Amino acid sequence: MSLDTVDKLVVFLAKRDGIDKLVKTFQYVAKLACWHVEATRPDAAERFKKWEVASGLSRKAFRTGRSLTGFNALRRNPGATPVIRFLAVLANSGEMVYFFFDHFLWLSRIGTLDPKIAKKMSFISAFGESFGYVFFIIIDCIFIRQRLRSLKRLRTNYEPKEEVSGKVSEIQGDIVMRLMGISANVADLIIALAEIQPNPFCNHTVTLGISGLVSAWAGWYRNWPS
């Protein structure tokens, strides 16, 4: 591993989102490993299950106060069109509901609050999460469509090649980041749907495990220092 990579890893893990994506990777790798050895090695499966649960609970604790970040996200986007601002309000509202009730879910699962409310808190949190992710996906799709139009215009203009190349690279980079965002949000939406409306597909361990890893690794890509 080069010194440059080590430096980037240090910067990545200094971010709250960086730590979250690392622990999320642990959580869903442990989930898949538990499923893989459940029938043949029950003792190992139990250890993997404990690792998964511990990772999930630690992520919830680390996200304390995250419900307030939606306000900051709206405040930092003053130049957006009215449609985008409206969609952003809906998306961030859903996310704030998700993180707010996730605090109560965490407290109920560690025994601070009545464990009986865990199921209800999980449903409300997952519902807010799903609601927000739908609008985040729509916003990213709108921006990708705009960026593709911009690329088309740039390639038909007679600007200096150096200027066009720089703008094209910038737009392509933004498109990739938004595709990563869509991948993460779709994966997390599947996980949330497993809580809202349990079904054989969403609740299958492989579906949940792969979705969790897709979300985690898309987050790694988006948060990795350039």
Automatic annotation (TrEMBL):
Its main location: membrane. It is found in: Peroxisome membrane. It holds the Pfam family PEX11. It is a multi-pass membrane protein. Keywords: Membrane, Peroxisome, Peroxisome biogenesis, Transmembrane, Transmembrane helix. The chain crosses the membrane at residues 83-101, 121-144. The keyword Membrane applies. Homooligomer. Interacts with ARC5 and FIS1B on peroxisomes. Involved in peroxisomal proliferation. Promotes peroxisomal duplication, aggregation or elongation without fission. Belongs to the peroxin-11 family. This is Peroxisomal membrane protein 11B. It comes from Brassica rapa subsp. trilocularis. The gene is A06p022860.1_BraROA.
